[in-house]
TrEMBL record:
Signal sequence interval, chain numbering: 1-27
UniProt source species: Tepidicaulis marinus
Keywords: Cell outer membrane, Coiled coil, Membrane, Signal, Transmembrane, Transmembrane beta strand, Transport
Name of the featured protein: Outer membrane efflux protein
SUPFAM superfamilies for this protein: Outer membrane efflux proteins (OEP)
Similarity comment text for this entry: Belongs to the outer membrane factor (OMF) (TC 1.B.17) family.
Compartments (UniProt record): Cell outer membrane
Alphabetized PANTHER family for the sequence: OUTER MEMBRANE PROTEIN TOLC (PTHR30026:SF20)
């Protein structure tokens, strides 16, 4: 029993050690943006579902080209009756083969409609992938921003913590009041709360990226790359607007128009009735003779001429045309918003990094050194520290908004402003 218990403890210890080695290993490998996009395109369930939808349409395209099956029939007449028809002596046996002949271009229209539906699914899959790339880029930006916030919060808390001994010494010497020490402790508490909130936001950002990878379980993820303004020349709005024509969503809408037109042609073809031709042989048991027979039938379009389906298909074409125009207008509006956000927030981020942040850091450093020498009071020190923290927060928010706008532009136009396939980036303001 003791040996079993010892083995169990050793096993649990080994498992804990293995877990302790595995989790840091997951977090030890920083993920670049291009790697994050590649993982999402490989694992995301929405992309897989869109791909399966395309496979479905390909199968339906194959099925659309298939001809109607022939029908075989057997018939027995004059059997099991009364009088001379009591048995099978007077029976007639008929075996026939029937084939419905599609006319009016039904098969060609059906194949074209299926192929256009396949094109719609292809464009829809491309649109899903493009949207996923945008979402991954934005989630990656939030992860980079959260990492920057945690780093800045740690540095701010450590800086205040280093000042507390000097503040406490001044209070003990009578050079400062007890209220100043309380203010310093309060500033440290607030800095630690900010650090805790930053760590929570970091975990949330990690979970958001994992969700796009279709990984429900949490694990540490570290984003690799410089959190700065994209090192890309932004084309004019007019040039970007022309690139909207290649947007997968718009291509999907245009493909839907063609699919609706093909469906309209199919409905018109269905209005033409298909004839059925039959051929067979009949055996007359009473005379031991046989004969061939041929028949021809065609529906009479007296009541159903498929007019309702034709009119509905025509209306769907109009709806699809309007859908193209609405989608283009919506994409253009989103591009306008993203373009304005990019030019505005990127300029703000560069100005903050170029002048505001260095000035705030220099002021805070000067007041810290002067406070130790007795040249400044604790309120001056805490005010400078708070200004530096607020400047850092504003700079992170500006860079994040700038990068998210770049991701939106990339999602709309396909222009890779964040270099998802490369690692070339620069710090804002450099």
């Amino acid at each position: 029993m003791k040996a079993s218990t010892r083995l169990l403890r050793q096993g649990l210890l080994g498992a804990c050690l293995l877990s302790a080695q595995t989790v840091p290993a997951l977090a030890a490998h920083p993920i670049t943006l291009s790697e994050a996009v590649r993982i999402a395109l490989t694992q995301n369930l929405s992309v897989e579902r869109a791909a399966q939808g395309l496979e479905e349409r390909k199968a339906l395209s194959q099925q659309a080209a298939v001809l109607p099956n022939p029908e075989i029939g057997a018939e027995a007449e004059n059997i099991l009756g009364s009088g001379p028809y009591e048995g099978l002596d007077e029976a007639d046996f008929t075996v026939s083969l029937s084939q419905r002949i599609e006319i009016g271009g039904k098969r060609a229209a059906r194949v074209k409609a299926a192929q256009q539906a396949e094109a719609v699914s292809q464009a829809a899959r491309d649109a899903t992938e493009r949207a996923l790339q945008k979402d991954v880029s934005i989630a990656f930006n939030h992860l980079l921003a959260a990492q920057e916030q945690v780093k800045a919060a740690k540095e701010a808390a450590e800086a205040i913590k280093r000042l507390l001994p000097a503040l406490r010494e001044k209070v003990e010497r009578g050079a400062s009041s007890e209220a100043d020490l309380n203010r310093g402790q309060l500033a440290l508490d607030l800095a630690e709360i900010r650090l805790s909130n930053s760590e929570t936001q970091l975990r949330t950002a990690q979970q958001a990226l994992l969700a796009l990878w279709s990984e429900p379980a949490y694990r540490p993820v570290e984003a690799a790359g410089t959190f700065g303004v994209p090192d890309s020349n932004l084309p004019s709005f007019e040039e970007l607007n022309t690139r909207l024509e290649e947007n997968p969503l718009l291509e999907s809408r245009r493909a839907e128009v063609e699919q609706r037109r093909a469906t309209f042609d199919l409905e018109r073809a269905k209005a033409v009735p298909d004839p059925t031709i039959s051929a067979g042989t009949r055996y007359f048991n009473a005379t031991d003779e046989s004969a061939f027979l041929v028949s021809f039938s065609i529906p009479l379009t007296v009541f159903d001429r498929n007019r309702g389906n034709i009119d509905a298909a025509a209306s769907r074409i109009t709806q699809a045309d309007l859908g193209v125009r609405l989608s283009h207008a919506e994409l253009s509006r989103k591009l306008q918003e993203a373009y304005q956000a990019y030019t505005g927030r990127c300029g703000e981020a560069e100005r903050l990094h170029r002048s505001v942040l260095p000035a705030a850091e220099q002021t805070s450093r000067t007041i810290r050194n002067g406070y130790i020498r007795g040249r400044f009071g604790v309120l001056d020190l805490l005010g400078a520290t708070q200004t530096e923290i607020e400047s850092e927060i504003q700079a992170v928010e500006a860079v994040l908004a700038c990068r998210n706008a770049a991701a939106e532009i990339a999602g709309l136009t396909g222009l890779d402003l964040l270099n998802t396939g490369a690692a070339s980036r620069r710090k804002a303001g450099e």
